[in-house]
Amino acid sequence: MFDLIRSNKRRSVALIASFVLLLCAVGAAVGVLVGYGIAGTLVALAFSGVTAFVSYWKADAIALRISRAVPADPDEYRRLHNLVEGLCIASGLPKPGVYIVNDSAPNAFATGRDPKHAAIAVTTGLLEKMNRVELEGVLAHELSHIRNYDILVSTLAVTLVGTIALLADLAVRMMWLGGARNRRSDDNSSGGPLAIVGIVVLIFAPLIAKAMQAAVSRRRETLADISACQMTRYPPGLISALEKLRADSTEVRSASTATAHLWIEQPMSGVKGEGKPSRFHRMFDTHPPLEERIELLREL
């Protein structure tokens, strides 16, 4: 398992670099298509670089804000704090910030840039529907994401995927209005090939970013499940929690496509049908099926 964790860290570095490169490619494409020559491209690249830098420091706060998470009062949520503290002592982790999301759907997520700057958020529905052993399993799963350094790339994906989509949409709208075409009318011969490349980048960049966002989470969820069982020494606790999540059909109201990959379970309804459309949509699923995760844990 420790080999998997080390491999996971290497993949995290590669994914972060890929996100930043894709963001820069979109920024360059925006600069070419909007016009303004080299100056426009440099401005777009600078914007992309600043976004990536700010994302590193503030993406966790953004994820918590989007999810409407608030700090969990130590007195009101004493059991939650006690479980987190106990698991942190057992695993040698610093205690993360503990947050509550006022939502009836049972779910939880972890965010942050490293174990010293991390946070765990759970819904009120999770606290109501899970017993102590099941809740411990869920919290151990989220702490495993922190210990395995999943949280940095997962948290950065929240802002970088959104920024890529925003830049692509902005460029397409400006092209539609015809401003870029008019500004480049005197430079068609040199700008044509670059413009074609830019259009291709803008068309495929959001899809690539979504596929990368899905890749961030799927394998990491399975590894976090196994790590959680090692942390608690009691796989039936997490198995029972996942079974309750599978049986529950409520959706997290404060979840969004930007943060879906952070949660322990897909927080919004997906495509349930079969056939080619279903297989296409599964390319962008942020989580492996709960049935597969439960069966794997039963084999431990």
Secondary structure layout plus pairing:
Elements: H1 2-34, H2 37-66, E1 69-71, H3 78-91, E2 97-101, E3 108-114, E4 117-123, H4 124-129, H5 132-147, H6 151-177, H7 179-183, H8 188-232, H9 235-247, H10 276-282, H11 290-298
Please, could you describe this protein's structure?
The chain is α+β, with helices and mostly antiparallel strands. The protein folds into 2 domains: 2-58 and 159-213, no CATH class; 65-152 and 216-298, Zincin-like, CATH 3.30.2010.10. It contains 11 helices and 4 strands. The protein has a 4-stranded mixed beta sheet with strand order 1-2-4-3, sandwiched between helices. Helix 9 packs antiparallel against helix 11 (290-298). The radius of gyration is 21 Å and the shape is elongated. It starts with a helix and ends with a helix.
Radius of gyration: 21 Å
* Helix content range: 55-70%
- Main sheet summary: 4 strands, mixed
CATH architecture descriptor name of the largest domain: 2-Layer Sandwich
Tally of helical runs: 11
Give the overall pLDDT as a whole number: 80
CATH homology superfamily name of the largest domain: Metalloproteases ("zincins"), catalytic domain
How many runs of DSSP E, i.e. beta strands? 4
Spatial arrangement of strands, main beta sheet: 1-2-4-3
Strand content: 5-15%
CATH topology of the largest domain: Zincin-like
Secondary structure class reads alpha+beta
